[in-house]
Write a structure and sequence with these properties.
The chain is about 50% helix and about 15% strand. The protein is of the alpha+beta class. It has one domain: 3-Layer(aba) Sandwich (Glutaredoxin). A hairpin with a 2-residue loop joins strand 3 (about 95-100) and strand 4. The radius of gyration is 14 Å and the shape is globular. The chain starts with a strand and ends with a helix.
Length: about 120
């Protein structure tokens, strides 16, 4: 099963996820947010499927540097899409689109159950 994985190549979690995919023979296409950006329609779909709380990475420095108003906007699904497109580093990594749905973050047990 070929999948699409979205993230930033130097992210440690993305590196672990890609290593796991390679070790398990899962074919994938990698989309680099830094070079390709994040499409609003995809981000909206991810938020609809997994909720903004799952897709938004509040632990990173990009989120912490936002103004209080922008942080408040991030809690609103529609406003969060615009913020995440503008600042793709705030998207929890990696995001995987596969035939049966979407995975957010790398959890080996969940990935094994879903992708193998």
């Amino acid at each position: 099963m070929a999948i699409d994985i979205y993230g930033i190549p130097n992210c440690d979690t993305v590196k672990k996820a890609r290593k796991w995919l390679d070790a398990n023979g899962v074919e994938y296409a990698f989309h680099d947010y830094k070079k390709e950006g994040a499409e609003a329609a995809k981000v909206a779909r991810w938020i609809e499927a997994k909720r903004v709380e799952t897709v938004l990475n509040k632990r990173g420095t990009t989120f912490r540097r936002l103004s209080d108003d922008e942080k408040a906007d991030a809690a609103d699904s529609h406003k969060a899409v615009a913020l995440l497109v503008q600042h793709p580093s705030m998207i929890k990594r990696p995001v995987v689109e596969h035939a049966a749905g979407i995975l957010v973050g790398f959890k080996e047990e969940e990935w094994s159950a879903t992708l193998l």
